[in-house]
Specification:
With 438 residues, this protein is α+β, with helices and mostly antiparallel strands. 63% of the residues lie in helices and 9% in strands.
Length: 438
């Protein structure tokens, strides 16, 4: 499972640059292209010839553009200062360049939008008002200095109104663009935060589910230990009465009691290992009835037949080997089959199920496969929290085993495969495997 930071990093859109230098450099390139287009197409009259004849003016213009680029690089930390600095440099360009339109650059437009993205309220409108007033004053003064500039309709008032309207429209469009980008980023950040909260909540629930699985397994093993201890006491008491009358039978009873004692010791050791992450006292109110073993899987299958189109079972292995297998391992085998059938019933009702349990000399292999029949079309996607598989994997890992589950390529078969050592014991490695899966 991805960590929160890695997950949010994966979902971060590519249009949002990490470095504040990226966009200013792009705007500088756009400014050079735009200026080149104006000069080459004659949009600014004879300005190109005047610039060619004045290298100091070209140098000053380049320095001004570089200064605007550098200033916009700090827009995230000082948005108002960056904007006002760009406005001042733009006004200087308007005053010194032969044509005022060359002073209105993509860098200047970008500064307005960048201010609107990061600033609201009076902190936005005060610098915008200052910049707009300065731009209007310079533009009108420059326009009125042209020959016959007041000859059009309305004279000076017409020129003033035209400049004000143009600049207000430009500012309005750029501010609206900035606010639209700011809204999109705010929604994106909120989505990232919600996703992060959901990820943390799911992780907490998964950890709680795994902890509950440990406690349940410990409680079940407690019952196994109580069952063996009861048998040991009964056999020990019986051997006491037969020690003189039937020494051979008493010896057999004591041997059985020793076996029960060893199993009890092993079960208690398992309980201690399982409960190691918890500092709370363990208690159980269950009776001394034994927990289900491998031999009980057949009965579980019979009880589950009504839920499936068909269900087959194959338990192979020597009866003595199965009987000698550690009780904790047998209980885990039963629970894995039980949970696999529960998942199949929930996500693929009326499917065909095959359960195979093979007991080897060193390990037990469990395979539960549910296949879609003609009455079903596809396996249902899980609508729950998805704790069943992690719980089974937790049980297997705690005993030093492994468990894998997944869909076939054609999405018609789900298979659970587990392998448990017959003498499985609690291991730090098994716990580590589960923590990595979580």
């Amino acid at each position: 499972m991805l960590s929160d930071s890695r997950l949010l990093h994966t979902l971060r859109p590519s249009w949002r640059p990490r470095s504040p230098v990226v966009l200013p450099i792009e705007m500088l390139l756009a400014t050079l292209v735009y200026a080149g287009f104006q000069l080459s197409t004659g949009m600014v009259g004879d300005t190109r010839d005047e610039l060619v004849q004045s290298p100091p003016l070209i140098a000053a213009s380049v320095v001004a553009l570089l200064a605007m680029t550098g200033v916009t690089c700090v827009r995230r930390s000082f948005p108002v200062t960056a904007y006002l600095s760009v406005v001042a440099i733009s006004i200087a360009l308007i005053l010194v360049l032969p044509d005022r339109t060359l002073g209105f650059t993509p860098l200047y437009w970008f500064a307005i939008a960048a201010l609107a993205i990061r600033v609201t309220g009076p902190r936005l409108f005060a610098p915008i008002a200052v910049g707009l007033i300065l731009e209007i004053a310079v533009s009108v003064d420059t326009r009125l200095s042209y020959p016959d500039s007041t000859g059009g309709p309305g004279g000076t008032i017409g020129v003033l109104a035209e400049q004000i309207v143009n600049l207000v429209i430009n500012y309005t469009v750029l501010i609206a663009l900035g606010k639209y980008i700011a809204l999109g980023r705010a929604q994106e950040l909120e989505s990232e935060a919600a996703l992060g909260r959901a990820e943390i909540e799911h992780r907490q629930r998964l950890n709680e589910a795994l902890d509950n699985e440990r406690k349940t397994m410990a409680r079940e093993l407690h019952d196994v230990a109580a069952h063996h201890l009861t048998g040991m006491l009964i056999q020990a008491k019986a051997s006491k009465t037969l020690i003189t009358s039937n020494p051979q039978q008493a010896h057999e009873l004591l041997t059985g009691a020793i076996g029960h004692g060893q199993r009890t010791f092993d079960s208690l050791r398992q309980i201690v290992g399982i409960l190691r992450p918890s500092d709370t006292a363990y208690s159980s109110n269950s009776d001394s009835a034994p927990q289900p073993m491998i031999s009980d899987i057949a009965e579980l299958i019979e009880q589950s037949r009504i839920s499936f189109a068909s269900i087959d079972i194959d338990i192979s292995g020597d009866a003595d080997e199965i009987g000698d297998t550690d009780s904790a391992v047998q209980l885990t085998c039963y629970r894995i089959v039980q949970e696999s059938l529960s998942n199949a019933r929930r996500h693929a009702p009326n499917c065909a199920v095959r359960v195979q349990v093979t007991v080897h000399s060193s390990a037990i292999e469990i395979t539960v496969t549910n296949t879609i029949t003609s009455g079903n079309s596809v396996l249902r996607e899980s609508s729950g929290q998805g704790f069943g598989i992690p719980g089974m994997r937790e049980r297997a890992a705690l005993l030093g085993g492994t468990l894998d589950a997944g869909l076939s390529d054609d999405r018609t078969t789900w298979t659970v495969r587990a392998r448990l050592p017959v003498g499985g014991t609690i291991s730090q490695r098994g716990a580590g495997v589960m923590e990595s899966h979580a």
